[in-house]
Design brief:
Elements: H1 2-27, H2 35-44, H3 47-63, H4 65-69, H5 74-97, H6 106-116, H7 124-144, E1 151-152, E2 157-158, H8 164-174, H9 179-193, H10 200-230, H11 237-244, H12 253-276, H13 281-290, H14 293-310, H15 319-341, H16 348-357
Antiparallel strand pairs: 1-2
Helix pairs in contact: 1-3, 1-12, 1-13, 1-14, 1-15, 3-9, 3-12, 5-6, 5-16, 6-9, 7-9, 10-11, 10-12, 13-15
């Protein structure tokens, strides 16, 4: 069980590293420079955040594992109350943070957790079914409502976010990480958290299935786009990319399968690596970094981007500069985590969050 938890922390560290890379690239409008670096950084978009949400689902299942086996309702009721407090705090924190960082995921995260409270005790197959339904619900929504409502795609700003209709639309339908379909990642993570991943055979099986789904989905998307490009009478290139692409916006089913299977593969890989190298210092340091993910998520905007804005280097940069800044921030995060966790058991913002949420 220790290795299992260690592997999740290890994966969480790399998920936050990936989010830093993606966000620095987007904010800096890093569209010049090496084409292959732009392509490589693009592969992470929507994948790092999906991994992060799946790991949140894992954490919920690990936290409530004993309560699910308890025949009385008291332990689970306490967990539901705790999760409700966390969800409210994340929603308030995220919405307060949004004027600084419009692409914030924390308030979405809070809604995912609030919804998860209803499913803490359901059977595994219900979690999987709810994940599928959440993904398909987005397809129905996009058929009824205009996905582009509220967006200025040139500046990536949401014009009516602070109106009631705009806020609801942004959170549940067409924001950066809308509840539908992103809550599906949390549900599938809750299912993962119930598995006994100390079994090497099970991990290898999940890795194989995940790899097949990941590669197969990407190939299917690629071939569909090639076919539609050669036969443009069906739909426009933009519509083809939206429906059959694997980009996170809009988060259509092919993206959900691709990002979810990639995250599963990566998490299984991290658990296997930490099982093999559990006694190595570098594993311990990276796991400690993963345990401070909230601190580093907030810091990469407030401190990382704040410093770059102060020196006038935040906008219109090359991909090389954006990646160098992201790499520097990630390295400094690892160093900070090493020294902080050698003196304290929990990260600074994690400690505040835990006290506020009870």
């Amino acid at each position: 069980m220790n290795n299992r938890i260690l592997g999740y922390d290890f994966a969480r560290a790399f998920a936050i590293f990936g989010m830093v890379i993606v966000n620095f690239k987007i904010v800096m409008s890093a569209s010049t420079g090496s084409k292959w670096l732009i392509w490589a950084a693009g592969l992470i978009e929507g994948r790092a955040a999906a991994t992060f949400v799946i790991l949140a689902g894992v954490g919920i299942s690990l936290m409530t594992a004993k309560a699910r086996l308890d025949l009385s309702s008291s332990p689970m009721s306490r967990h539901r109350l705790s999760l409700l407090k966390r969800s409210i705090l994340l929603i308030v924190l995220g919405l307060s943070y949004s004027p600084i960082w419009p692409a914030d995921i924390l308030h979405f995260y809070g809604f995912y957790i609030a919804i998860s409270i209803l499913l803490l005790s359901v059977k595994d197959r219900i979690l999987i079914l709810c994940s599928i339904i959440s993904s398909l619900a987005f397809v129905l929504l996009i058929m009824v409502f205009d996905y582009e409502t509220g967006w200025d795609w040139i500046t990536l700003t949401y014009n009516d976010f602070w109106t009631l209709s705009g806020t609801v639309r942004h959170i549940f339908f067409n924001g950066f990480h809308p509840v539908f379909p992103w809550v599906a990642f949390l549900f599938i993570g809750m299912w993962m958290g119930r598995l006994d991943l100390s079994s090497l055979h099970l991990r290898r099986k999940i890795m194989l299935v995940s790899a097949i789904l990941w590669v197969g989905t990407e190939l299917l998307s690629h071939q569909a786009l090639i076919y539609l490009d050669k036969n443009p009478s069906f739909i426009s290139p933009g519509e083809a990319q939206a429906i059959f692409g694997t980009n996170p916006m809009p988060p259509m089913p092919l993206y959900m399968v691709s990002a979810g299977s990639a995250a599963f593969f990566f998490i299984m890989l991290c658990i296997s690596l930490t099982s093999m190298f559990a006694d190595h210092r570098w594993v311990d340091i990276l796991c400690k970094t993963g345990q401070m993910s909230l601190t580093f998520y907030m810091a990469h905007v407030v401190i990382g981007m704040g410093v770059l804005e102060f020196i006038g280097e935040l906008k219109n940069q090359s991909i090389e500069f954006a990646l160098a800044c992201a790499l520097l921030f990630n390295i400094l995060s690892i160093i900070f985590a090493y020294f902080w966790m050698s003196k304290f058991k929990i990260g600074p913002l994690e400690k505040i969050f835990r006290k506020l949420s009870g």
